[in-house]
Write a structure and sequence with these properties.
This protein is of the alpha/beta class and about 450 residues long. It has helices at about 15-30, 70-85, 105-115, 130-135, 150-160, 160-185, 195-210, 220-245, 265-275, 295-305, 310-315, 320, 325-345, 360-365, 435-450; strands spanning about 10-15, 35, 55-60, 95-100, 125-130, 275, 285-290, 350-355, 370-380, 395, 400, 405-420, 430-435. It is globular, with a radius of gyration of 30 Å.
Amino acid sequence: MNIPLNGRIAIIDDEISQVEPLFKALSKNQMPYAFYKGNDINYLPDADSRFNDIRILFLDINLVDEKATLDEKLVKSTLINVLRRVISPENFPYALIFWSRHQEEHEKLVKDLFENELKDRQPITIKGFVKSDFFPNFSGEEVETDVDIIEELNKLINSELSYSYLLNWENQVHMASDRTLQEIFSSYHSYENWTDNANHLINKLGISYSGKAYFGQSPEERIKSAYNSLTYLVNDTLEKKVNSKNIDNAQELTVEDSGDSKFESYYSINKKLLFSDDSEPIEYPGSVIEDQNPKTESIFLDLLNNSFNRSKIESELNEEEINNKNESEINKLVNKKSSSKRKEIRSNWQRVYLTVTPLCDYVQNKYEYNRCVKGMIIESSHLDYIDTKSEVIFISPKFSLDDGKSYILILHFRYFFTSNKGGNLKNLKPLFRARQQLLAEIQSKLSRHISRQGILFLDDR
């Protein structure tokens, strides 16, 4: 069953009595929910408040007057006002289930709403339910029915396979967090000593993450240190859970039309997979910082020269260009074309540093200097002109930026340097942060470059 276990079910209705049977069904199956009384603003979040992520929304179409004849304009305006408070434009993905006596007629009304006024917060699927099918009686004694709301809800979720798998993953994240707290704090069931024991253990978790630096940290930093220890444990538990738990009736996800026009650019998704937009502080491991100082440009010119694949230019020469030319003349021609290509690369490049200070040194405040590698961000169309075989050069997968073009991050390990902690930030612009997996790959290749020892041996040649 993939129905959310983490409180991401919302119910909007104007009559609590009419959805009490739904409350009971969800409660019985241990599925937390939030209820919003659609005709009472005191139940609704403020327009500018932080929105909870909702995965399933039950919506009563008529939030005005159950006995009155439905006025479509009034119904729509009411729904718009309520939904804008409950559903955020960032709330995605979620499924919408609406209650209606006239299902087909009102389905058109709801779809029209989300294709126009509420286009920025569309659900992935819309399904109409008739309340009386599930709850024949809204008051007094309940009447038995063969239709199970939980079963029908599960069918709806499973009809969207990718959606059901994502909800399943979210449930596993929820259970991994719960399992972590149980394992760490299970010895402290007694309420008599709970506070002291929990305080002691949380402090110890913080120390295990930050080391001796913990004792010089502010209360906020200490709590964050403990959070990071718990996050480490959650990740390990989640990984084990994902790899060992069976997925009921797992099916292959097929794509009817793989035309790229339907999808966001893979390179724009790569940007999200490889980098995070939180870019500060620049001392944080993985930070990618643009150097805008004109005085340092010569260093990056040298870096580009040492990363350039001159043999690519040579391979592009045609017979007409080299006919009747000696080696010196050909070399001059290659130099000229190489210079022109490097100028083209520099036309929109970004000269960058990437912080490679180990995370443990950063969080434990053990570092006196920031450790960085110089590099550049260039258009991926120039990749053939970069020496991809060199062990001192790291090249990221392709990713796109705001202009929609495809780029690559190039780092040259011979341009490894250190800078003073808390040094001059003038002419430095934080861009984004390499995620942990990418940073670990960079650090691994950098360490291999630094620790190359070579082998002493005799050769018979």
